[in-house]
Amino acid sequence: MRVFMFRSLRVSLAVACGVAIVVPGFPAAEPLELLASDEASRSTQIIQRFAGQQDATQVLNWTAPSLAVGVRQTASNAGNVVDINDRALKSVRQDFDGKQLSLNEIVLNTVAALESIEQDASNIGNAVIGGDIGNVEQYFADGSVQHAMNHLILPELPNTVRQSGLNTMNLVYSEQSVALSSQNFTKQAEQVVDNRLNITGAGGGGAIVQEGTNLGNIIIARNVDEVVRDFSGDQVINNVVTLQNGARWGSISQNGINIANYIEAESIGYLRQTSSNGRQIVNNRVEQVTLDGLTQTITSPNITQNSNNYVNVIVLKKALPDGTSQVVDVLQSAEYGQTVQGANAGAVSQTGNAVVIER
Question: Closest Cα to residue 257, out of 207, 314, 305?
Fold first, then answer.
């Protein structure tokens, strides 16, 4: 069970790192702070400050899909991102004080020939990707918000409906080393994913997939010298499907994962990570509208729900190349609320203050 749990967690992190690397190619709302590799490598110190709001919204009111067989919506925002591949970087400070909203919305009166509908919403802020990285300071300020939202209303189900939301804040990724890192995700800051699907008619035999992921204070490197960080904000995921009484469906899969204060490395010198006052919530819910207009939660048939919350997780990978043992000085403290709703025929895991050693 533990192996499966952390394998799933690592898959989510791999997706986030992929998003970070390709951010310069994404259509993102303004203002967008991206440093070119040459500029970053010449700088002894990079300072980025995000203040304001990014809105990436796509709203489609489609009365007649005609002969279209598939539709895909992608909304993404990026702020305070440094990506210099494997080059060395001396110092970075990133302050994020604002909001990111990525919204996909589709309203259909008929499905017609549509076979698939996909909605992908993502936000990324305070991300550093490089080779040997010196000092990194990342701050997600009080009142700041990342909100990824997918909203779909339709009378029937095509073959496949997929909604995916991803928020990433305070990420450091290096295939080499990180000397010193400070990450702060403050008490009044939050990450929210909302995937909402409303079937207004008879439904159909199609498959519904809803996925939500929140990542905050993430470090992945070969060697890490010193890390001090705190996570005190909220991570919330809502995967909600609403069906009319008597509506049909083929299968429904709802998956939510929140990760706060995660570090993965071969060696770690000193690590202090705390989490308090915040919340991690995964709400997977399938509700049916009754004849009298009320709603009731249902868990069958063919409904699978997976909920995962992780806070303060350390993964020590293989031994050092010279065979020496790793010395790790760790202080962890977690006073954090973790809540899941909806876990039918799926997996639930809630983890705080975990150390995993791979040999």
Answer: 305
